[in-house]
Design brief:
heterotrimer; A mainly alpha; B alpha/beta; C mainly alpha; A: mainly alpha; two-stranded antiparallel sheet; 15 helices; 77% helix; 1% strand; C: mainly alpha; 11 helices
């Protein structure tokens, strides 16, 4: 890691780690919990959607899986407190194991068809959440334990767990960029047939990326379910959650380390704040769609890559001029 | 992909630090700014409603009810001499946003009182936030079994009974008929949702106990746009009574499918959707409404005290006619009425007083005389209403009936 | 037995309605490999257009298709020209998913401002009429819709096979580069093709508004069904999508009428996944360029 990179990462996580100690109002912490949640989700989506170029629209299925996992184990007041957080690694492992056959089948298709197959998966999981009533509570929903945390610092545990999940996702992302897996994924993304031809273990790297990606999504879902306190199928397995991850990754920059985080830190506070302050107008959806379109048309590769290119170009021009 | 523009990167980390510092300082300022005295300030109330998204129509109706109540109460001089101000925010039908909104209302805007959201699916997450901070939670929308299973003593549901008991009055009516003229067979067609399906199940339990045979019982998912296959399954069994556990669109789709399949049961009860004086005739045609049973708490022809004044004020504020007023507006208005009544009775208005006071006695509102058990479940009953001559009329219980029940149901007009 | 046949009738008629919507979607995919997530929203726009025109003029909704079709064509062509054409070709496939989703959201937002979210129905008076044939109920509107979709598919077929435009489209589909060298204006072909694909929603929207109550959010329910039809039919094969729509309609009707409606869509998704596994190009997609 370059010196600047270390400074950047340390100051980012350092400030975020210290922040709850100085900032008391719960509304700030609440806002940051949702921001970190989407930053972690977008970073995890980036592993498969960004590096491998497989635009999964089914991640919310695993998010919901995690939420129900925690919800079912910690129903009502069975073993609440910090226990759900300790179960999270198990949630991640289970999600990863389940994802292997799913990824194997789904990734026989490419890009756009993969998107449809994964969104089909999402709807199937949502149907299961509705129909397996004995397990999930069906449409009646599932209540998760009420934690005994002090109201004055209620959000703090959730905040730190989301931060750790973000750190995990970004570490994997960083590792991808430096390792053979990352190179293989980039090759897959550029031209899968060619990658296969030069002897890259295409299937294996794709499945590794997919499994890691959805494992994090599931763990984030688990924390969300515990924080929200009550889980309904249509909210836990919600296409809009997937769309959120995708949009934030695209906004910040696909296949970059900081892009998804940047996207989440711009979109989530903006969305939650606008909805709170100005949401009463019907123009909310229109504005959201407009922002969406502007990003796609003006910054098709995302903020970070576009800015980097501009700066490189300027540096090059300056260098030319100095000659 | 290694980036070599270190100057730019340094600048970026500076920006990140600056953002964090700004976040910290704005929150500090807002904490300090809120430390003013509260006695003479207006009474501030916070509500989050779904003003966009799937539940937007009911959210808008609730907004009208809340705002009308605020305007009425301020005309009367406010509550205990304090003017009432209401902050209505939008949760866009999203569960994340509803948590954010109630957290913000309580810890950022520091409102004195919060009231319930619309839609009902957002009630539980919202009530948990309110309870955490010791706020009372008067809510006009969420009345499913899971809401009361939360055992939240701060919660009060502003409708006559738990939503899932909305069909009990229909069962009462059917079982009040002499055995020879009762239906022999029944079908239950239920939307998979926290309120509609349990409501129909409650009726089914009563009917089966009385010997009415179940010939069809199925749940359908909420995205079912086309009800004809389901209704064709029902029609094949030719039940005497059809009980539809419905919400909105599906109620209309069920009726359309019955007309298309020329299936006309002797009794047709639709829990929700058919109770909307505005939407039901619009969606299926006024003539087809004839003879459909539903249950209501408030409707424009209601005889509850205060209804005439409410309708008059509503039309003065929003225009239109009495027939266009949604019961949700009356429910939201009633939630406000409860605050007024508590203040009048105790001379105080704070969360602890509200919670303590509402747990005893009975409270007259537009939606009936309300009283609750320990966890906010109202102890009254709905009224059985039927579409007769183009409008909803109370037909049961007999004491409050405006018209005798019409059975068997007249044929569909088409 | 009676219920099985009745379900078959209902299912095929509903399948015909979905075929009408999906044919446009398939055409768009076939021509420019764009998965149009806004197709459902365009259907709803057309439903509202028909609803308003019917209220204003009192003309028959089926007659109004003549007016709404060109409007939807222009809307579609404009969407392609202003929002999809500028995308860079190397990631156009991924980005177009998001752009069309944004279009869907924008249309939904605009419709909720104009019409609110109240459910509407187009009610010319015969919308619920059915013929009774040997004891079975055949809904008039769905029957007309079925005929309409066959006619529409016929027109699309002739357009693609017999006209100059059709030849340019087929050339573009097979090899965009050489088509361009041969003087085909592929940009114009794309815009025209997208417009054509969207214009089929005019008829679909009128029918949809007649058979079900709708509001601006109804497009979410349509889009997952349309997507699965397109994939099942074999991305880009119009004939395939018709058969897929019929399979979906009949399958869902049988499951709903004879067993549990809550599993109707699930059953269809399973069929879809099985087809993708055993025949990854869809039922009829063998000849479409690089779909899988």
């Amino acid at each position: 890691m370059s010196k600047a990179g270390i400074i950047r990462a340390t100051s980012f996580f350092g400030i975020l780690a210290l922040l709850p100690l100085g900032v008391k109002p719960q509304w700030v912490i609440n806002l940051l919990i949702f921001t970190l949640m989407y930053a972690a989700l977008a970073s995890s989506w980036n592993l498969i959607g960004g590096y491998a170029g497989y635009p999964s629209l089914g991640h919310a299925a695993f998010f919901g899986f995690g939420a129900y996992f925690i919800g079912i184990i910690f129903e009502n007041n069975v073993g609440n407190g910090y226990n759900p957080f300790f179960i999270l690694p198990l949630v991640g492992i289970c999600a990863a194991i389940i994802s292997i056959p799913i990824g194997f089948i789904a990734m026989k298709t490419r890009k756009d068809v993969f998107a449809i197959v994964t969104i089909t998966l999402l709807f199937m999981v949502q149907t299961l959440a509705y129909n397996l009533r004995d397990l999930t509570g069906g449409a009646q929903g599932k209540g998760v334990a009420v934690p005994p945390f002090d109201p004055a610092t209620f959000g703090r545990p959730y905040y730190y767990v989301m931060l750790i999940l973000l750190l995990t996702a970004m570490s994997i992302s960083f590792y991808f960029r430096r390792s053979k897996i990352g190179l293989s994924l980039a090759a897959v993304r550029a031209d899968e047939d060619k990658a296969h031809g030069v002897g890259i273990q295409v299937t294996a790297v794709k499945i590794i990326a997919f499994a890691l990606s959805v494992a994090i999504a599931a763990m984030v879902g688990g924390v969300w379910g515990y924080y929200e306190g009550f889980i309904y199928p249509q909210f836990a397995v919600d296409p809009l959650i997937t769309i959120g991850m995708v949009l934030m990754t695209f906004l910040g920059g696909r296949a970059t380390l900081w892009g998804p985080v940047l996207g989440a830190f711009i979109l989530v506070p903006a969305q939650q704040y606008f909805s709170y302050e100005f949401g009463a107008t019907q123009f909310y959806l229109l504005a959201y769609a407009a922002i969406f379109l502007i990003i796609m048309l003006v910054l098709p590769r995302g903020i970070l890559p576009t800015l980097t290119d501009r700066i490189r170009l300027r540096a090059k021009i300056a260098a030319e001029a100095n000659k | 992909m290694k980036l070599n523009t270190s100057k730019f990167l340094e600048r970026r980390s500076t920006v990140a630090a600056a953002v964090a510092v700004t976040l910290v300082s704005t929150s500090l300022i807002s904490t300090l700014g809120n430390a003013a005295s509260a006695a003479t300030k207006p009474l501030s109330i916070g509500v989050s409603l779904s003003l966009t998204g799937d539940f937007a129509d009911s959210g808008t109706a609730a907004q009208k009810g809340y705002k009308l109540w605020v305007s009425d109460v301020n005309k009367k001089g406010g509550i205990l001499g304090r003017q009432v101000s209401i902050k209505i925010v939008n949760d866009a039908s999203s569960p994340d946003q509803v948590v954010t909104n109630y957290t913000n209302l309580i810890t950022q805007s520091k409102v004195d009182i919060v009231m319930g959201p619309f839609s009902s699916l957002l009630t539980i997450p919202a009530s948990r936030v309110a309870k955490r901070y010791g706020y009372s939670f008067i809510e006009p929308a969420g009345g499913g079994p899971k809401v009361f299973a939360e055992k939240n003593p701060n919660l009060f549901f502003v409708q006559p009974a738990a939503t899932t008991k909305g069909g009990d009055v229909f069962a009462d009516y059917i079982l009040s008929l002499p055995a020879s003229s009762r239906p022999k067979t029944a079908a239950y067609v239920k939307l998979d949702d926290p309120f509609a399906a349990p409501l129909a199940d409650n009726i089914k339990a009563r009917f089966e106990a009385a010997g009415i045979k179940t010939v069809y019982d199925q749940t359908y998912p909420s995205e079912t746009a086309d009800m004809t296959p389901v209704i064709s399954g029902v029609a094949a069994k030719a039940p005497d009574v059809l009980v539809g556990g419905t919400q909105t669109a599906d109620a209309f789709a069920q009726v359309k499918a019955m007309i298309q399949l020329k299936f006309n049961p002797k009794w047709l009860f639709l829990s929700n959707g058919a109770s909307s004086p505005l939407e039901f005739p619009k969606a299926i045609g006024l003539k087809n409404t004839e003879g459909v049973f539903t249950s209501s708490d408030w409707y424009p022809k209601s005889t509850a005290p205060g209804t005439a004044a409410f309708i008059k004020a509503y039309i003065a504020m929003y225009g239109g006619t009495a027939a266009l007023i949604d019961s949700t507006s009356a429910e939201a208005y009633s939630a406000g009425t409860l605050l007024e009544l508590v203040a009048k009775k105790t001379g105080k208005i704070d969360n602890a007083t509200i919670i303590k006071t509402l747990h005893t006695g009975s409270w007259p509102t537009l939606v009936g005389n309300l009283s609750w058990n320990a966890y906010g479940e109202p102890q009254g009953a709905y009224l059985l209403t039927q579409w007769i001559g183009g409008s909803l009329k109370t037909v049961f219980p007999t004491a409050s009936a405006q018209h005798a029940p019409v059975a068997p149901k007249p044929a569909w007009v088409g | 037995m009676h219920s099985v046949v009745q379900a078959l009738i209902l299912g095929s008629l509903t399948g015909g309605v979905y075929a009408l919507m999906a044919s446009g979607q398939t055409l768009i995919f076939g021509i420019m490999k764009v998965i149009n997530l806004a197709q459902g929203a365009f259907v709803i726009v057309a439903s509202y257009l028909t609803f308003s025109l019917f209220q204003m003029t009192g003309l028959d909704p089926f007659l109004l298709i003549v007016i709404t079709t060109p409007i939807m064509f222009i809307l579609g062509a404009a969407t392609q020209w202003f929002l999809l054409r500028p995308l860079r070709p190397d990631d156009a496939a991924e980005l177009s998913l998001l752009v069309t989703f944004a279009v869907a959201l924008g249309l939904e937002g605009a419709l909720s401002i104009v019409y609110k979210t109240t459910l509407r129905s187009i009610m010319p008076g015969y919308e619920n009429h059915s013929w009774t044939v040997w004891g079975y109920q055949v809904n008039e509107v769905r029957f007309y819709a079925f005929l309409l979709s066959i006619a529409m598919l016929g027109i699309l077929y002739l357009l693609l096979q017999k006209t100059k435009f059709g030849r340019s489209v087929r050339a573009t589909v097979q090899n965009p580069m050489s088509a361009q060298l041969l003087g085909v204006n592929s940009k114009a072909v794309s815009a025209f093709g997208f417009g054509l694909g969207v214009s089929t929603t005019a008829a679909a929207g009128a029918v949809f508004g007649l058979i079900t109550p709708f509001n601006p959010g109804s497009h979410y329910d349509l889009i997952s069904r349309l997507l699965t039809i397109v994939v099942l039919g074999g991305m880009g094969a119009i004939g395939g999508s018709v058969i897929a729509a019929l399979i979906m309609g009949v399958g869902a009707a049988l499951v709903s009428a004879l067993s549990a409606p809550i599993w109707a869509d699930f059953t269809f998704f399973i069929v879809l996944l099985l087809v993708l596994l055993l025949r990854p190009r869809g039922l009829f997609g063998a000849k479409v360029r690089g779909a899988l």
